[in-house]
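Encode chain A's predicted structure.
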Amino acid sequence: MGLDTVELVMQVEKTFAITIHDHEAEKMLTVGDMHDYVMRVTVADGRALDSDQVWDQITEILAEDYGVARVKITRKAAFIRDLGMD
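Encoded structure for chain A:
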């Protein structure tokens, strides 16, 4: 994982009050993978977050903190290949 993706993982951890272990982060190749992980972990913790709100927060982080154009942020968008993150 490059610096951008490490920082993204840290920001997502902080935003959703979760821990993402390195071996799990390495599996997150797309924005959809990250969304699904956040949903899975928070449900397991007994926190039923709204899926649309989680998506909006991840989108906000990518757009505001990393300058990713919102039109590029889709479930299938790969962090490196499609969003230009290292």
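The two ends are 7 Å apart (CA to CA).
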